[in-house]
Specification:
This protein is α/β, with parallel strands linked by helices. The protein has a single domain, classed as Alpha/Beta hydrolase fold, catalytic domain (Rossmann fold, 3-Layer(aba) Sandwich), CATH 3.40.50.1820. Helix content is about 35%, strand content about 15%. Helix 1 runs antiparallel to helix 8, helix 3 crosses helix 4 and helix 7 packs antiparallel against helix 8.
């Protein structure tokens, strides 16, 4: 049940443009000060550390980052593919002075356990069950859901089953509408309809190093400035023995999300969670068309379409953190 080791994280962190792991930068930089997955934030001469923790769920280790007071409103950050809580390494400390911020790694991702496909049912239903048990284990009675990419179908399942716990949505390039699945998804749809080795082979590019880097750089305003620790860390996870099979299992199961769209949309209409949308307009995977559909069903939507790509936080962290602050405070 292999997890992504701290040594691999540290190796990846050495490539960060900001410097070496654990580097502290002057207060005037406001928030980004880390060189590794453990981030330290310096604001008004105070120092906040992000804690690394692990809990047992179904006998498996679920790794997570946690910061901020447990008495503060909770923001639960759900990552996408092919990353982990690492994608939130700067957002967590940026919010921790005011909120209780938690970012778990799914099973098979980051530093959570990685059982084989024969030992664990790698489906979105099962990942949702793990996250649901995770929230119960941590005693999270209410929280705002930040959902990105794969975090969408996990989070929307969680919301549909526990609407009373979800105070609001923060949606960042996560889809819940047919209109949001454009050209990128054509080969996926063929495979979902006809599960042959030939159709599967067309999806093997998903775990290639060049694809991992492309996800972080495509559509960015300044791709050369994107922190390379992102794709180095993610690729280290993908390259573990057995992880390709895990990713293909999750990719195939993504097809189970589409029939659930009407159910999710009905839940949106019934419960009307306040929603903040921060969407990278240049994302080829989840294009801008998917962002606008939420307004069909949700009445209280604040939407920001940003000139960036799939991983919005790499270029627009300041803006997104400020919008989250205003949004979460407004729904308390």
């Amino acid at each position: 049940m292999m997890a992504l080791s701290p040594a691999l994280i540290d190796d990846a962190s050495a490539f960060k443009s900001e410097g070496v792991p654990q580097q502290k930068i002057a207060p005037e930089t406001n928030h980004i000060v880390c060189g590794g997955i453990l981030c330290i934030d310096v604001v008004d001469d105070s120092v906040r550390e992000v804690q690394e923790k692990t809990v047992k769920i179904e006998g498996l280790d679920v790794f997570y980052l946690e910061a901020g007071s447990k008495d503060a409103p909770t923001v639960l950050l759900l990552h996408g593919f092919p990353t982990s809580s690492h994608m939130f390494r700067n957002l967590v400390p940026a919010l921790a002075d005011e909120f209780h911020v938690i970012a778990p790694d799914y099973i098979g991702y980051g530093r959570s356990s990685m059982p084989t496909v024969d030992e664990f049912d790698y489906t979105f239903d099962h990942q949702k069950q793990i996250i649901e048990k995770f929230t119960e284990k941590l005693g999270l009675e209410e929280f705002t859901l930040y959902m990105m990419d794969y975090g969408g179908p996990i989070g929307f399942r969680l919301f549909t089953d526990n609407p009373e716990k979800v105070q609001g949505f923060i949606i960042q390039n996560a889809n819940a509408y047919d209109e949001g699945l454009e050209e990128f998804w054509d080969d996926w749809k063929v495979w979902w309809a006809d599960k042959t080795p030939e159709n599967e082979a067309k999806l093997h590019y998903l775990v290639a190093p060049e694809t991992t880097k492309w996800q972080y750089t495509n559509g960015m305003r300044n791709p050369d400035a994107v922190d390379p620790s992102n794709w180095i860390t993610d690729q280290a996870g993908l390259d573990r023995p057995g992880n390709v099979a895990i990713q293909l299992a999750m990719a195939y199961d993504y097809g189970t999300n589409i029939p659930l769209y009407p159910q999710w949309q009905e839940s949106f209409r019934e419960y009307q969670p306040p929603t903040l949308i921060v969407w990278g307009a240049n994302d080829y995977i989840f294009p801008e068309s998917g962002a606008h559909q939420y307004e069909r069903d949700l009445e209280n939507v604040e939407k920001h379409i940003l000139d960036t790509g799939h991983f919005v936080l790499e270029e627009d962290l300041d803006f997104v953190a400020a919008e989250i602050r205003d949004f979460v405070n407004s729904i308390q």
